[in-house]
Design a protein that fits this description.
The structure is a single chain. This protein is α/β, with parallel strands linked by helices. It folds into two domains: 143 residues, Aspartate/ornithine carbamoyltransferase (Rossmann fold, 3-Layer(aba) Sandwich), CATH 3.40.50; 149 residues, Aspartate/ornithine carbamoyltransferase (Rossmann fold, 3-Layer(aba) Sandwich), CATH 3.40.50.1370. Helix content is 36%, strand content 14%. It has a five-stranded parallel sheet with strand order 7-6-5-8-9, with helices on one face. A four-stranded parallel sheet has the order 2-1-3-4, sandwiched between helices. β1, α2 and β2 form a beta-alpha-beta unit. The two termini are 30 Å apart. The structure holds phosphoric acid mono(formamide)ester. The site of phosphoric acid mono(formamide)ester (CP) has 10 residues, from α2.
Length: 310
């Protein structure tokens, strides 16, 4: 699929399921153009944006903030711990309030899956919602930066062999990526502990032992072990997990010379991947973080364009 610099127009960005293939390709293409120095769209009026992070974040929160500042948006400080959330205010009432103050875009990370549905279905709230991750549901901006990274490497998605490996059931990264990668024609495998695999993945790819496919992969996409979402279901010692499912130096040597390693980060070093491999030649983990700024600029431009068309 050729990438073209199409202008994308969005009302919200909440799930990869709601994006067409053309919109995905347009956003990636715009992210690449911005990275290559293309000027961002100029704003025709003051635009307020707030980042509401109810779960911890470094990459998503800070790269949205950098993207917002590069675009000239007015970023409103919002800290959950000093807000009226601590007096029991709900997410809905928090967004209703910011909307009433004139905030036009809210980037939100929250532990509740599908938290955004109530916000985008509200007849009162007019702010656009950008999902920065909903529990183990979706993480669309991460998925778009992952796709941008794969496209920069291979120039296509069709036929690219991708293995998503690790804590699948708890991963919004896996769920966002599996759907869109299949739609774009990639060949998908899943690997990792059986207890962190569920039937919902069957329609998108094959569950395999990492050692059975490692030599033929183009992309090994490792996932973080999400201890905070485990109810004691399938706990492993770090060493056991690393040896059975992680990227050891021995497995790294089995990868093709053209293969790449991805990880959304934060990385548990010596658990999902050997400490020394995080910045190895085949690793694109740092590049993913850099790409996050540009793809998030593209997302925000598309949202601003969508608001101008209303
Ligand atoms: N990849 C990712 O979402 O990282 P953060 O949790 O630091 O935002």
């Amino acid at each position: 699929m050729p990438v073209v610099d199409d202008k994308v127009v969005l009302r919200h960005l909440v799930s990869m399921e709601y994006l067409s293939e053309e919109e995905v390709v347009g956003l990636i293409s715009r992210g690449i153009s911005l990275k290559n120095g293309r000027a961002s769209q100029s704003l025709d009026k003051q635009t307020f944006i707030a980042n509401l992070f109810f779960e911890n974040s470094t990459r998503t929160h800070k790269s949205f903030e950098v993207a917002e500042k590069k675009l000239g948006l007015d970023v409103i400080d919002f800290h959950v711990e000093t807000s009226s959330v601590n007096k029991g205010e709900t997410l809905y009432d928090t967004v209703l309030t910011l909307d009433a103050l004139g905030v036009e875009i809210c980037v939100i990370r929250h532990s509740e899956v599908d938290y955004y549905k109530q916000l985008i279905e509200s007849s009162t709230i007019s702010a656009s919602i950008v999902n920065g991750g909903d529990g183990s549901g979706q993480h669309p901006s991460q998925s778009l930066l992952d796709l941008m990274t794969i496209y920069e490497e291979f120039g296509r998605f069709e036929g690219v062999k991708v293995c998503i490996a690790g804590d699948l059931t708890h991963s919004r990264v896996a769920k966002s990526n599996m759907q869109i990668l299949k739609r774009l024609g990639a060949q998908l495998y899943f690997s990792g502990p059986e207890q962190w695999y569920s039937k919902e993945f069957d329609s998108y790819g094959q569950h395999v032992a990492i050692d059975d496919v490692i030599e033929e992969l183009d992309v090994l996409m490792l996932l973080r072990v999400q201890h905070e979402r485990h109810d004691g279901n399938g706990t492993f010692s770090k060493e056991t997990y690393y040896r059975q499912f992680g990227l050891t130096k021995e497995r790294y040597e089995c990868l093709k010379s053209s293969a790449i390693i991805m990880h959304p980060a934060p990385v548990n070093r010596d658990v999902e991947i050997a400490d020394s491999l995080v910045e190895a030649d085949k690793s694109r983990i740092v590049k993913q973080m850099t790409n996050g700024v540009f793809v998030r600029m593209a997302i925000l431009e598309a949202i601003i364009a969508g608001r101008q068309e209303r």
